[in-house]
## 1
Amino acid sequence: MKNVRLMDFRYIQDPDDAEFYGGLVPIEGARDIPFEIKRIYTISGMQPGARRGYHSHRDLEQVLIALGGSIKILVKTPFEEEVITLDSPAKGLYIGPMIWREMFDFSPNSTLMVLASKYYNEGDYLREYEPYEREAREYFSK
Ligand code: T46
């Protein structure tokens, strides 16, 4: 859908004993991420049944990565919606401007890491659905 896409990062494993040694995921700034990273935050400690998000951003671009466990993300506009499961540190979910998002179905001990294109700015959030929907209809009709 518009302004949303899944990204695959490299997952490097020891060819002789991948199961024992696990894997390594390198993420390189300008090479793997389509914006300059200004901020990184993590979300952890969610209980089953918790649901977070319920907002959009006007300008911010982000890449969401489940460092551990699995997390579902609902991404939505007035015209389309999708639920994406993040369940590997080698999978990133790019979310651009004007996408409503909700995070839910956190598995025990899951951790979400978010790479963001801008410093924290509460003024960039649209935290109520109806005003968001009005702006998003115009934005996606251009
Ligand atoms: C998003 C999803 C995926 C800060 O002080 N600095 C920060 O960088 C962030 C992200 C948040 N905060 C404060 C603002 C609130 O007082 O932390 C508190 C919790 O933030 P919020 O309720 O917005 O958290 P989520 O999990 O609903 O949303 C967060 C991000 O805010 C948002 O940009 O896309 O994760």
Note: The first strand starts at residue 4 and ends at 8.
## 2
Amino acid sequence: MVKAKVKETLLQAIQGDITREKADAIVNAANLSLMGGGGVDGAIHHAGGPAIVEECRTIVSEQGRLPAGQAVITTGGKLPAKHVIHTVGPVWRGGNGGEEVTLASCYTECLKLASANRIKSISFPAISTGVYGYPLEPAARIAIGSVIKYLNANSTSIEQVRFVLYDTNAYNIYAAEFAKISGV
Ligand code: AR6
């Protein structure tokens, strides 16, 4: 585990399975249908049970499909986490299609929604770095940078932000990024 502190909020990166997090909220790297999929999305819906997809269906019927860079919240169903914040990352198309702005927006919108719901602990996967093909190094820089920027600019209920990386390679890349920001 690596750690840093931004104002009163503890930032951590760990290697693990996000479906096992006992946080107030975990973040799902969803797609715009919100109806589930593979990767972390599949794992969250599998572990959380059908209540989550039912809530997602209601959200989509009310507001339509979820554009990339936006976020919505549901309960956590059978998960140890109380809530799931669903966001849609950008598909990597080489980096000139606004991917960086959209990915940063995912993190910021999740934190806004978490604050609005008085959430104290939130865990993020490495959004877009699987099926959507975003290279891990820039994705880690944007993930950590966006969270730090948000926390520095806002007063928030969030006491802990965790990045939960599924494999060693992703964890090592996040740990290297944490080493650059230690002391923030
Ligand atoms: N815990 C933490 N991280 C995980 C887990 C887990 N249980 N499982 C996978 N990862 P991806 P995307 C990591 O493909 O790139 C879905 O089908 C994985 O190693 O899940 O945003 C959706 O429905 C990778 O680093 O999400 C969309 O269609 C990271 O999670 C599409 O994939 C993200 O990989 C979204 O693609």
Note: The two ends are 17 Å apart (CA to CA).
